């Protein structure tokens, strides 16, 4: 039966399907998504269940009969299939025989290959064993040969030692050759370290090395004593071959550096040093040592400091020169490292740092410089300088001077003679001295840069706190002795209103005894002294102190770090400027309150026109001319004229004028409201209109007109201080509230 890939339809399989009902489509049973339940539900719409059951059974019967027909159609061919297959086994045997022959041949070839491979592996193994044995034999022969050669060379060296000084160069050259052979012997011995022969030679190898090191040291000492550079270099190359740098460094230190340093230190101790010049004396001593070392072994040092040179394993600067210098200073001049006298310690430290800088200047490459700085002698030398104790002593000295200056200021005593910067208070002059000391080149040390920066910030913060406490006391005293009912709330002096300090600052001291309580009794104009001093100190921080700090830090720090450090000083200076502004605002409040006290006399206008026959006003009240007299008095005082610059004076005038105008507006508005309420009450009682003067104006109109004339005169008073009333919002509000056009006639 032919097989096809094309699908067979129900119509092709069953033939005529017209005998089934129209609603029964046999093709539906072949759909991939066929579902019996859904099909039954769909067909129930066309026929009852019984009819549907019968029709489906008929369809099943047709399918079964068709299946039998299909099977019977090709059954004859299927049965006769076995009779057609004749001599199948013969065909199979004929096909199998060549394959079996090929298999036998492949097995024979495989066995032959295995035999050859085994023979080849055995040959390679024998060759490897022979090669290993030959290598071991060559190694042993090489060891024996090198050992014999080293022994003979050492005998030659021993013989040459008796020939005299003239053969020092040849002997050192021979020692360099021996060192190369000993290094070669050690290398070969390390290759065969597990061999019994090599283990037996360890004692001989160690003996050869010990003899060579002894003779190298003796020859190097002799070469250094005679300043024979050629012989010394041969010895150093010998140490390089051995990989030993320590013995050569110790020899140079003991033969050259130690006698030189001991002699110069002894001469230094004989010279009398004047008090205060210890740093100069130490600087001269170290300079002499540096010159002497460079003169006696300068070429040798240069040879060892060549970048990528064969002698770069030596660190003569650190392990020979610096080690001996710091040991000699510690034993012979221990007072050099003592921080008990800060000026002497500072000078000595700078001298020592200068000496180390000169040693670093001899380094010809980064690797040599790193080797010097990482040496034990370098670290030990700088550990001897107790910088923490030095700073603690300075801190106590500067902080004590600052606290003494603040606590000693018990009144408004001016500096005598006058300060060069124009500072008025002795406390401010003390702050200036402390700030300058902290960045003085005679005090500042670069390794302590962060601590000195913190000290600067603490000095500023302490001064700021001192002034702030005095101002707070003045504000509290004014609130207790002169309460202002219904007035605007006065300025609250806090760290926020005065300008917060730098985050992380700590005051040098917060001793309440240093609080300037006397500031609460000063006249208002004397507050200009504090405004002036705060402004000067702020400018000093932003200019001279900041420049000095930047110059000191640039020696070791990059520009970005210096800018960041100076930025903290700028922030601290801004806090002082904010405090000066707060004091100026306080001056404005006090002057304004005095001016408002004069303006309050406007309440007498009511008595002038109430229930009287007085005519309408034609000129301003007498009190108006003195409304701003307190401001004029303060500005004309000697303190303000000499200490307050024009911008600050103008700011004070504007602040006072604004406050007085606002309070004037409030008082005038309250007065007008009271007068109108009183007049309305009288009208209701008399059941008549208000009393009218000869010109027809009521009392309230007269009072309002008087207030308007007074406000105009007040504006004229403002112009005398250089102000333009039309530009003052507070004054315009006052004038608008008392204008006749705003009153109800």
From TrEMBL:
Protein name as annotated: Conserved oligomeric Golgi complex subunit 2
Species of provenance: Chlamydomonas eustigma
Domain COG complex component COG2 C-terminal: 383-711
The keyword Transport is assigned to this record: yes
Record-annotated membrane-spanning stretches: none
Family named by the database record: Belongs to the COG2 family.
Biological process according to GO: Golgi organization; intra-Golgi vesicle-mediated transport; protein transport
GO annotations of cellular component type: Golgi membrane; Golgi transport complex
């Amino acid at each position: 039966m032919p097989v096809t890939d094309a699908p067979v339809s129900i119509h092709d399989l069953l033939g005529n399907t017209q005998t089934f009902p129209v609603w029964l489509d046999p093709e539906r049973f072949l759909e991939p998504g066929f579902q019996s339940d859904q099909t039954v539900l769909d067909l129930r719409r066309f026929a009852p269940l019984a009819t549907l059951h019968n029709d489906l059974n008929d369809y099943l019967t047709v399918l079964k009969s068709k299946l039998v027909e299909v099977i019977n159609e090709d059954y004859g061919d299927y049965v006769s299939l076995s009779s057609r297959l004749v001599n199948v086994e013969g065909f199979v045997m004929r096909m199998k025989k060549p394959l079996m022959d090929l298999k036998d041949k492949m097995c024979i070839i495989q066995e032959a290959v295995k035999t050859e491979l085994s023979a080849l592996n055995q040959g390679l193994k024998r060759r490897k064993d022979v090669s290993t044995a030959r290598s071991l034999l060559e190694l042993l022969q090489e060891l024996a040969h090198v050992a014999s050669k080293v022994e003979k060379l050492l005998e030659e060296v021993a013989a040459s030692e008796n020939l005299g000084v003239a053969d020092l160069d040849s002997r050192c050259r021979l020692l360099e050759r021996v060192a190369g052979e000993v290094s070669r012997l050690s290398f070969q011995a390390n290759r065969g370290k597990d061999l019994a022969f090599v283990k037996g030679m360890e004692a001989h190898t160690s003996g050869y090395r010990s003899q060579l090191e002894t003779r190298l040291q003796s020859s190097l000492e002799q070469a250094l004593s005679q300043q024979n550079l050629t012989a010394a270099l041969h010895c150093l190359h010998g140490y390089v071959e051995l990989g030993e740098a320590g013995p050569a460094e110790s020899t140079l230190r003991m033969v050259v550096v130690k006698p030189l340093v001991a002699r110069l230190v002894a001469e230094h101790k004989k010279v009398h040093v004047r008090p205060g010049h210890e740093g100069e004396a130490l600087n001269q001593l170290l300079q002499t040592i540096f010159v002497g070392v460079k003169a006696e072994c300068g070429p040798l040092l240069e040879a060892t400091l060549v970048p990528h040179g064969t002698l770069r394993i030596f660190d003569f600067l650190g392990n020979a020169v610096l080690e001996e210098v710091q040991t000699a200073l510690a034993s012979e001049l221990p007072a050099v490292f003592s921080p008990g006298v800060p000026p002497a310690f500072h000078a000595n430290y700078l001298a020592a740092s200068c000496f180390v800088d000169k040693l670093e200047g001899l380094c010809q490459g980064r690797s040599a410089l790193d080797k010097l700085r990482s040496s034990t002698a370098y670290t030990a030398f700088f550990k001897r300088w107790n910088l923490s104790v030095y700073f603690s002593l300075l801190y106590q000295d500067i902080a004590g001077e600052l606290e003494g200056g603040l606590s000693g200021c018990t009144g408004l005593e001016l500096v005598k003679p006058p300060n060069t910067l124009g500072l008025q208070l002795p406390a401010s002059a003390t702050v200036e001295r402390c700030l300058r000391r902290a960045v003085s080149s005679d005090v500042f040390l670069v390794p302590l840069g962060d601590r000195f920066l913190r000290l600067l910030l603490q000095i500023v913060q302490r001064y700021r706190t001192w002034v702030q406490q005095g101002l707070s006391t003045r504000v509290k005293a004014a609130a207790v002795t002169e309460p202002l009912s219904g007035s605007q709330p006065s300025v609250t002096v806090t760290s926020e209103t005065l300008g917060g300090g730098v985050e992380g600052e700590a005051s040098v001291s917060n001793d309440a005894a240093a609080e300037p309580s006397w500031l609460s009794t000063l006249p208002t104009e004397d507050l200009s002294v504090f405004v002036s001093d705060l402004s000067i100190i702020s400018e000093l921080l932003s200019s001279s102190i900041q420049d000095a700090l930047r110059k000191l830090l640039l020696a070791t720090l990059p520009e970005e770090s210096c800018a960041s450090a100076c930025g903290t000083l700028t922030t601290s200076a801004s806090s002082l400027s904010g405090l000066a502004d707060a004091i100026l605002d306080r001056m404005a409040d006090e002057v304004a309150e005095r001016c408002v006290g004069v303006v309050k006399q406007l309440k007498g206008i009511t008595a002038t026109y109430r229930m009287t026959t007085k005519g309408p006003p034609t000129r301003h009240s007498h009190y108006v001319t003195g409304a701003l007299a307190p401001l004029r008095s303060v500005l004309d005082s000697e303190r303000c004229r000499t200490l307050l610059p024009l911008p600050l004076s103008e700011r004070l005038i504007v602040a006072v004028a604004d406050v007085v105008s606002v309070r004037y507006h409030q008082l005038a508005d309250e007065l007008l409201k009271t007068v109108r309420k009183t007049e309305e009450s009288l009208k209701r009682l008399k059941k008549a209109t208000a009393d009218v003067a000869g010109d027809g104006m009521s009392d309230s109109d007269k009072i309002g007109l008087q207030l308007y004339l007074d406000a105009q005169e007040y504006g004229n008073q403002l112009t005398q201080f250089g102000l333009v009333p039309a530009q003052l919002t507070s004054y315009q509000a006052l004038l608008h509230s008392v204008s006749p056009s705003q009153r109800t006639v």
